[in-house]
């Protein structure tokens, strides 16, 4: 199943890269839940490629994919949780930073996760109990979270929810506080790849409100298997349907400090 998922992420990634070459900036999208929640033809094509391949290979498995899921997270023994294109806003505007996200959950717990950046050809994968790995240029190496132990020396990443134009609970207060207590906050536009960066030790932590299971399932396993820690804002262990996420290198001086900073920023506003 691991090599099946890796091959599938590569095929979907190649399809996205092809669409990205052809696309005309700012002309090729429609909107979904809000004016900043975008959908392109590439989302739909990648979704079809991935879901058809899984149906053919594992007809008894269930699939929960961003562009074809209807309703809440199903309870299933084997559930593939898919984001066929993570970073659609980047993609639609031609920013070269987006990925494919494929996870397999067993009774609701991710046991396999693959996150692929088709432009850099960095492929991150993790399997429960087998560590987290980066494949690139025909080579593979284990990845680990960073050892930086203080928030004040940490580089972070975040993103803003799709209802940010209308909902005052839009992550700007948290962003303001954490930008001033860290080495800075990146906002790259792909939760999946930012989580992979935490796993690989490129950045110390990532936080985000109101992610969907497909944004974070593979990244949760990558960070866990790379030695990090993933919780909700209140410190409870993260689950597929959690409303909030903090993923870090697990250092208390980073993780606990982020939880405290978020709590203080939210208390000042709400
Ligand atoms: P997407 O590109 O697949 O839509 C940006 O902060 C991150 O949040 C991206 O990974 C983006 O995924 C995700 N995102 C955007 N809109 C979202 C929504 N309505 N629900 C959940 N996640 C969303
Ligand atoms: Ca998506």
Q: Could you tell me how far the N terminus lies from the C terminus, measured between alpha carbons in angstroms?
A: 45 Å
Portion in strands: 25-35%
Rounded mean pLDDT score: 96
Rounded to an integer in angstroms, the radius of gyration calculated over CA atoms is 17 Å
**Poorly predicted sequence stretches spanning 5 or more consecutive residues:** none
Which kinds of small molecule does this entry bind, naming each only once?
A: adenosine-2'-monophosphate, calcium ion
Write down the overall geometry. Answer: globular
**Adjacency order of strands in the biggest sheet:** 3-4-5-6-7-8-9
Helix segment tally: 7
Fill in the keyword field for this structure.
five-stranded mixed β-sheet, alpha+beta, 14 strands, 270 residues, 7 helices, seven-stranded mixed β-sheet, single chain, binds adenosine-2'-monophosphate, binds calcium ion
């Amino acid at each position: 199943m691991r090599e099946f998922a890796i091959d599938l992420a590569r095929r979907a990634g190649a399809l996205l890269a092809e669409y990205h070459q052809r696309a005309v900036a700012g002309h090729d999208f429609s909107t979904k839940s809000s004016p900043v929640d975008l959908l392109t033809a590439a989302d739909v094509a990648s979704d079809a490629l991935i879901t058809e391949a899984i149906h053919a290979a594992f007809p008894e498995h269930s699939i929960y994919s961003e562009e074809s899921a209807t309703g809440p997270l199903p309870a299933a023994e084997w559930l593939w949780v898919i984001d066929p294109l993570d970073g659609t806003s980047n993609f639609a505007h031609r920013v070269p930073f987006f990925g494919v996200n494929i996870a397999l959950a067993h009774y609701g717990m991710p046991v396999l996760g693959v996150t692929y950046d088709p432009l850099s050809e960095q492929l991150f994968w993790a399997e429960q109990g087998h560590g987290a790995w980066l494949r690139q240029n025909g080579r593979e190496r284990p990845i680990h979270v960073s050892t930086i132990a203080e928030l004040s020396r940490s580089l972070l990443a975040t993103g803003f929810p799709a209802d940010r134009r209308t909902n005052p609970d839009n992550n700007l207060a948290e962003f303001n506080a954490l930008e001033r207590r860290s080495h800075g906050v990146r906002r790259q536009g792909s939760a999946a790849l930012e989580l992979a960066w935490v796993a690989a030790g490129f950045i110390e932590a990532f936080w985000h409100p109101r992610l969907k299971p497909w944004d974070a399932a593979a990244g949760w396993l990558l960070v866990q298997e790379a030695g990090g820690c993933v919780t909700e804002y209140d410190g409870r262990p993260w689950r597929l349907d959690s409303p909030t996420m903090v993923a870090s290198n697990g250092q208390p001086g980073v993780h606990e400090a982020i939880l405290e900073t978020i709590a203080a920023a939210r208390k000042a506003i709400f």
